[in-house]
Amino acid sequence: MEIDGSTTIVGVIGYPIAHSLSPRMHNAAIQTWGINWCYLPFQVTPESLEKAIEGMRGFGIRGLNVTVPHKQAVMRFLDWVSPEASAIGAVNTILNEEGRLSGYNTDVEGILAALRFGAGLENLPEKVVVVGAGGAARGIVYALTTVTDVKHITILNRTIWKAERLAAEMEKMAKEKTEIAGKELDGETVRDELREAGPGGCETAHGAGLVINATPVGMYPDVDCSPIEDPSAFHPRLVVYDTIYNPEETRLMRLARSRGARSLNGLNMLVYQGAKSLEIWTGRKAPVDVMREAVMS
Fold first, then answer.
1. Which residues are catalytically annotated?
2. pTM for the whole thing?
3. Which of 30, 221, 240, 276 has the maximal Cβ count within 10 Å?
4. Torsion angle of the four alpha carbons 34, 37, 42, 48, in this order, in degrees rounded to the nearest 10
5. Are 198 and 236 in contact (CB under 8 A)?
6. Count of alpha carbons within 13 angstroms of residue 194, beta-carbon side
7. Residue 289 above 90 pLDDT?
8. Same topology for domains 8-105+274-296 and 108-265, yes or no?
9. Alpha-carbon gap, residue 140 to 142, rounded angstroms
């Protein structure tokens, strides 16, 4: 890859950002195409977000991915937001067209593809628990409301009013009849929500079949943390999907596996949502296999 005066710049903003595998993944795709592009990580503090977005205009940066903690805050600095991103209330992809900034959310496509193709869950369980109520959780809950298999979603968050507010917002816009509840993330609630499924893998009236961690808890460098610390909450019929991909195995995943639950990290979600972002910026079909190989090598 050669950088010169005609190189098109794309990248990712977040805080922190050093852990991100997105540059490796996107630059692998760019090299496969042989185009004069380069993908870079930019560490942006919350206080500097507005200046960073203006810098995107000023420097002519073609596109940016947006990660924690900017997915919601960035929306007010954009010229246009897609209906889906507006409904979700979070943006993870920005397209710059001659200074006009458009916001999209590819997390919806990313999480559904990751669960169906990466995790092999052709049919999702009736009840899903989502941990977190931030920008990532918004995209995930919205995505789940579009799946007819899912009838109940519980959002768990340490700040209960955030969980309740998100639940109320998402239940109003649910395309299918989906019950969504927001509850406090504490030991008793977790155990009740994840109560073991019944015979044959069918959930009980309370039990969830899938848990998705949509928080950064457990992400590098704080690898000894987990949003759920009680291993007794997990059971063998449960699937635990952690959207974190660095480290490759989080503490949450280890705790789940210690009780026989199946657990997966967020690499496939990263790949699928990243592929969609790249397609928005370039108009080309992204080489998903190349991108996956780059982050798994």
1. 71
2. 0.90
3. 240
4. -160
5. no
6. 30
7. yes
8. yes
9. 5
With cut-offs at 50, 70 and 90, classify the pLDDT of residue 205: very low
- Low-confidence winner among 20-29, 80-89, 142-151, 172-181 (lowest mean pLDDT): 172-181
The structure tokens listed for 107 are 């997390």
CA gap 3, 5 in Å, rounded: 7
For the domain spanning 8-105+274-296, the CATH number is 3.40.50.10860
Name the pLDDT band for 196 (thresholds 50, 70, 90). low
Angstrom distances, CA of residue 102 to CA of 56, 82, 252: 12, 7, 35
Confidence (pLDDT) at 203: 46
Tens digits of residue pLDDT in 242-271 = 999 999 999 999 999 999 999 999 999 999
pLDDT at residue 201, rounded to an integer:
46
H or E element, residue 182: strand 179-184
Closest among 233, 286, 291, 290 to 263, alpha carbons compared: 233
User: What distance in Å separates the CA atoms of residue 92 and residue 70, rounded to the nearest whole number?
Assistant: 8
Do 66 and 41 form a contact (C-beta atoms < 8 A)? no
pLDDT(135) > 60: yes
pLDDT of residue 209: 95
Please check whether residue 61 is in contact with residue 10, taking contact to mean a CB–CB distance below 8 angstroms: yes
Q: Does domain 108-265 have CATH number 2.40.70.10?
A: no
**In 10 A of CB 51, how many CB atoms?**
13
Name, in order, each residue with C-beta under 8 angstroms of 166's C-beta and a sequence gap of 6 or more: 133, 137, 138, 141, 155, 157, 182
Residues 31 and 290 sit within 8 Å (Cβ to Cβ): no
Task: Determine the distance from the C-alpha atom of residue 172 to the mean position of all C-alpha atoms in its chain, rounded to a whole number.
Answer: 22
The 3-state DSSP class for residue 266 equals: coil
